[in-house]
Design a protein that fits this description.
Elements (H helix, E strand, L loop, with lengths): L3 H13 L19 H16 L5 H6 L5 H9 L7 H32 L6 H18 L8 H20 L11 H7 L7 E6 L5 H14 L4 E5 L4 H13 L3 H6 L2 H6 L10 E4 L5 H15 L3 E5 L12 H19 L3 E6 L3 H4 L15 H4 L2 E10 L2 E12 L6 E8 L4 E9 L3
Parallel strand pairs: 1-5, 1-6, 2-3, 2-4, 4-5
Antiparallel strand pairs: 6-7, 7-8, 8-9
Helix pairs in contact: 1-4, 1-5, 5-6, 6-13, 9-10, 13-14
Length: 424
C-alpha cells in the first residue's frame, strides 16, 4: 500500500490508538495528505490533541474531521500503531515527491515560455531547473529532529577522531598547506564558510589554488569556481607550483617551460575547475552538482565581489545575501567553502594590517564566516616586501595570529617562515 491508501492506514492507526499521536506530530503536516478526507481528519485530530480533548470517532466528527461512518471504516481496517512512524514516513515521502514534481513542472513551464520570449535569460532558467533537480535529489536525505543524547554521542565521537588524527601527525581535515595554520585550525573540515580576504597582489588566488591542488592530490575531490581567471591560466599556475616551473614562461609558451610541464599530462587528480559562470544560482547549482556527482569535499569561489546576484538591491545588500547563501550552502552540503574576497583600500592607504572591519563593506561576511583569514603585504620604503597570513577570526578556535609567509612568486608557491602573536 502506498500513497493515498497509506494515508488511510495512518488515520486508522491514530483512531485505534489516539495516544500515539505525539509520536508523529512533528513528522507529518496536514498538507502532507493528498486525500481530502484524511487531510480533514488529521487537521481536526491535531486540534483536539492540542486542546487536550480525548480523540475518538464522535469527537472527530464534531470537530469537522469527517463522517463517523467513514472514520469508523478507517479505524476497523487499521493494523494498530506498532509501525506508525514507518507509515507516517511513507506518507511524508509521497508528499515530498508531489512537491518536487510541482516545482520541476513549474520550472519547465517557465523554460518553455522563455523560448517564446526573446528577452528571457534562458541559461539562467536552465541553471535554475538544474538546481531544483539537484535540490530534489539532496532532499531525499531530509534532515529530521534528533535527540540531544544522540548528538552528544556524535559530538564526542567526532572530537575523539579529530584528536587521534592530530596526535598521529595528520590534519583533522583538508590541509591548509601551512603547518602552523593546520595546528591552529585542524585544517578545513565540516560545513564551514572560510573567507580568505586581501588586496590585489597578495597571492590570494595562488594560495587558494595551492590548497585546492594539495587537497586533490591527497584524494579529496575539489570544485574550483574561478570568476576572475580563466581555467587554463589557473592550471598553468598549478603546474608551475607543483613542478617549480616559471609560471610566466609557461604562460608565454617558452619551449623549455612547456617541455618541463609534460609530466602534468599524467596527473589525474579530482580537481574540477569552472570558469564560465557568473551568477550565484549558476554557481550554487554547479557546486551542488559536483557534490552529488563527484563527491567534492571542498569548494572554492574566486571571488565574492564579482559574483552576480539577480535583483535590484544595493551592492552591500547583495554581498550580504551572497555570504549568507554561501554559508547555507556549506551547511547543506556538509563541506567547507573557501570564499575569496577583496578588502578595503584603506589597508594600503593607511599602511597597516587588515582588520575584520575591512570586510564589512562585503555585507555580512564578517558575521557569516566561521573562519576569516587575510593575505597581506607589508611594504616599507627601505625594506623588501614581506608577506603575512593573518588568522583574524575562528569561531571555534584561536585567532588573532600572524603567520609570516615565504613567497616563491615565479612558481606561485606559498610557504611559512614562523608564527607570531597579534601586535596592535
Amino acid at each position: 500500500m502506498i500513497g493515498a491508501d497509506m494515508e488511510q492506514v495512518v488515520i486508522g492507526a491514530l483512531l485505534a490508538e489516539p495516544d500515539s499521536f505525539p509520536r508523529i506530530a512533528d513528522q507529518l503536516q496536514t498538507e502532507d495528505f493528498a486525500r481530502a478526507d484524511c487531510r480533514r481528519a488529521f487537521q481536526a485530530m491535531r486540534r483536539l490533541v492540542t486542546d487536550g480533548t480525548q480523540v475518538d470517532i464522535w469527537a472527530l466528527e464534531a470537530a469537522g474531521g469527517g463522517q463517523a461512518a467513514d472514520l469508523g471504516r478507517m479505524q476497523m481496517n487499521s493494523a494498530g500503531a506498532a509501525n506508525l512512524e514507518h507509515y507516517a514516513g511513507l506518507v511524508r515521502t509521497a508528499a515530498r515527491r508531489r512537491q518536487i514534481e510541482r516545482d520541476l513542472m513549474a520550472a519547465l513551464t517557465r523554460l518553455r515560455e522563455s523560448a517564446e520570449s526573446p528577452g528571457a535569460d534562458q541559461p539562467l532558467l536552465v541553471e535554475e531547473l538544474a538546481q531544483k533537480t539537484i535540490s530534489a535529489l539532496e532532499g531525499q536525505r531530509e534532515a529530521t529532529t534528533r535527540p540531544f543524547q544522540e548528538l552528544v554521542q556524535e559530538t564526542l565521537a567526532e572530537a575523539r577522531q579529530v584528536h587521534q588524527k592530530r596526535t598521529s601527525g595528520n590534519t583533522a581535515g583538508i590541509s591548509t598547506t601551512l603547518p602552523c595554520l593546520n595546528e591552529l585550525t585542524g585544517g578545513f573540515h565540516g560545513p564551514k564558510l572560510i573567507v580568505l580576504g586581501g588586496r590585489p597582489g597578495t597571492f590570494k588566488t595562488a594560495y587558494a589554488a595551492q590548497i585546492a591542488t594539495e587537497a586533490a592530490i591527497d584524494g579529496f575531490p575539489v570544485g574550483f569556481v574561478s570568476l576572475e581567471m580563466g581555467a587554463t591560466e589557473l592550471v598553468a599556475r598549478v603546474i608551475a607550483n607543483r613542478l617549480k616551473i616559471d609560471g610566466a614562461g609557461l604562460s608565454r609558451g617558452v619551449p623549455e617551460d612547456v617541455h618541463a610541464a609534460q609530466p602534468a599530462l599524467t596527473w589525474e587528480w579530482p580537481l574540477y575547475i569552472e570558469d564560465q559562470l557568473s551568477s550565484w544560482p549558476e554557481i550554487a547549482s554547479r557546486i551542488m552538482t559536483w557534490r552529488h556527482r563527484r563527491g567534492i569535499q571542498l569548494a572554492v569561489i574566486d571571488y565574492l565581489q564579482i559574483v552576480r546576484l539577480p535583483g535590484k538591491s544595493s551592492r552591500f545588500e547583495k554581498l550580504g545575501e551572497l555570504s549568507r547563501e554561501a554559508k547555507l550552502l556549506a551547511k547543506r552540503l556538509g563541506i567547507p567553502i573557501l570564499l575569496l574576497a577583496q578588502i578595503s583600500r584603506d589597508v594600503e592607504k593607511e599602511n597597516r594590517r587588515p582588520l575584520l572591519s575591512d570586510i564589512r563593506e562585503c555585507g555580512n561576511v564578517e558575521q557569516d564566516a566561521d573562519v576569516v583569514m587575510f593575505t597581506h603585504a607589508q611594504r616599507a620604503k627601505d625594506r623588501p616586501v614581506t608577506y603575512e597570513l593573518i588568522l583574524a577570526k575562528q569561531r571555534n578556535g584561536p585567532a588573532r595570529e600572524v603567520i609570516k609567509l615565504q613567497i616563491d612568486a615565479p612558481h606561485y608557491r606559498i610557504g611559512e617562515l614562523w608564527e607570531q602573536g597579534w601586535e596592535e
